[in-house]
Amino acid sequence: VSKKAAASSSGAAASSVGTGRNWVSYGFDRKDETNDRSAMNASFFFTVTLCLVLGSAYWAYVPDPQLQDWAQREAYLELRRREAAGLEPISKDFVDPAQIVLPSDEELGNTEIVI
């Protein structure tokens, strides 16, 4: 028997039993290859495209929750204002020393002061 005849007879036997092709299910539909492949393609499309791509784009453009960008811009504006007014960039007396009330030595007593 020639190879061609053997292949045609085995192909006829396989087509009468099932689809005639070796098919391993992706786990979405174990009976229909077309539905199985369509469900696999749809699930990977939604997983990769929507979750990873759109999720990454959202994460990249989400507003800064700790307002670090705003604080840095505000600091640059304040430094520019102080330089234009001829003031020091950072004042050593941020709070007026006359407004600070310190306890006397009698009030402190034996309290240890760590500097």
Automatic annotation (TrEMBL):
This protein's record includes keyword Membrane: yes
InterPro entries noted in UniProt: NADH_UbQ_OxRdtase_ESSS_su
* Annotated Pfam families: ESSS (PF10183)
Q: How the protein assembles, per its UniProt entry?
A: Complex I is composed of 45 different subunits. Interacts with BCAP31.
Q: How does it sit in the membrane?
A: Single-pass membrane protein
Report the protein's function.
Accessory subunit of the mitochondrial membrane respiratory chain NADH dehydrogenase (Complex I), that is believed not to be involved in catalysis. Complex I functions in the transfer of electrons from NADH to the respiratory chain. The immediate electron acceptor for the enzyme is believed to be ubiquinone.
Tell me the segments the record calls region Disordered: 1-25
Q: Which UniProt keywords apply?
A: Electron transport, Membrane, Mitochondrion, Mitochondrion inner membrane, Respiratory chain, Transit peptide, Transmembrane, Transmembrane helix, Transport
Name used for this protein in its record:
NADH dehydrogenase [ubiquinone] 1 beta subcomplex subunit 11, mitochondrial
